[in-house]
Amino acid sequence: IIIIIFIYIIIIFIIVIIIIIFIKIKTKFFLLLLIFFSQSIFAQTNYTIFVPYAPGGWSDRIGRIISVYEKNTNVINITAGKTPKGIETTHKNGQIFIAGLDWIVVNPLMYGPEFNYDVRKNFEVLVIGNSPYVFLTNQSLSSNNIKEFINQIKINNIDLRYSISSAATHIASIEFLSKLNINGRPIPYKNGASQSIFAVMNNDVYFSTTPLASASAALQSNQIRAIAINSEFRNKQYPSIPTVKEQLGYSMLSKTYSTLNISKNMSERDFVYWKNFIIKLSMDEKFINDMNHIGLEIDLIKDRDIEFWHTNQVKMFKEIINKNNILAD
């Protein structure tokens, strides 16, 4: 009996040591095993990811990259006028949509009761990552940095028309221009960032604020100029673009994130599958590189951390809105 008790004690001791080692090294091995088996068990035949913008923007590009890794996924774009109805249908059908901060934070904050669709109530919100804002000008201004941009505007007494594609980019543009003590006239492009960026390239407007992930293709074509990027350090993909901080001495408050939103009407089997699938992708080096290439830094925020993240985003936008006297209209 004593020998048996001793053996049990040894076994328990070994198990405790293994658990301590597992916690300390925070290994991904067991998590990956869990994900692998759950994916094998829970995989479905077909999924649809809805993008509430026209093709070409960063949400669209993220959706199409994800569909490369999950072969049974279709990506469908919803035009601006049909977006609320499209997201409602996405929820009812138990599907997924990808969007920036507007649908999660900004629109409910700006429009209050008029914005009667609560994304967080009907969807599981997973923040995939963030993309720093870049500040774009057309080639006619010949500006390579903020100082040259200010001089061009003031010397030539330019009526600064700038394109916006969402409430978030509008707020970011106002914050940026207010820091420079420059007034501008916003021109809305409701079909997404790609149309807003094209307006700059086509010299219809002089300036645009947009996530790097939306602007990367245009920047690679050399048909547009970036005078600043709002990140702590210069971007590895675009090291020639100076940061706002190195030019002005501080960074802007405005940030933007991409969210993948899973309908709570999805079957439990598929719901678990997609959450595990996104966790797996966020650790996949090839996927991370694909996202970095379009200007998105992977920063997965999920579960209990989403409330803390959401509270901080609301606080940030309220501060920008109040400081700059921004009205919803």
How are the secondary structure elements laid out?
Elements: H1 2-25, H2 29-42, E1 47-51, H3 58-69, E2 73-77, H4 83-92, E3 96-99, H5 102-111, H6 119-122, E4 123-130, E5 133-137, H7 146-155, E6 161-164, H8 167-179, E7 185-188, H9 193-201, E8 207-211, H10 212-220, E9 225-229, H11 244-248, E10 257-263, H12 268-282, H13 285-293, E11 297-301, H14 305-323
Parallel strand pairs: 1-2, 1-3, 6-7, 6-8
Antiparallel strand pairs: 3-10, 4-10, 4-11, 5-8, 5-9
Helix pairs in contact: 2-12, 5-14
Protein architecture, described:
The chain is α/β, with parallel strands linked by helices and 329 residues long. Helices cover 50% and strands 17% of the residues. The protein has helices at 2-25, 29-42, 58-69, 83-92, 102-111, 119-122, 146-155, 167-179, 193-201, 212-220, 244-248, 268-282, 285-293, 305-323, and strands at residues 47-51, 73-77, 96-99, 123-130, 133-137, 161-164, 185-188, 207-211, 225-229, 257-263, 297-301. The strands form two sheets. A six-stranded mixed sheet has the order 2-1-3-10-4-11, sandwiched between helices. Strand 1, helix 3 (58-69) and strand 2 form a beta-alpha-beta unit. Helix 2 (29-42) packs antiparallel against helix 12 (268-282). The longest helix is centred in the N-terminal third of the chain and has 24 residues, at 2-25. It is globular. The termini are far apart.
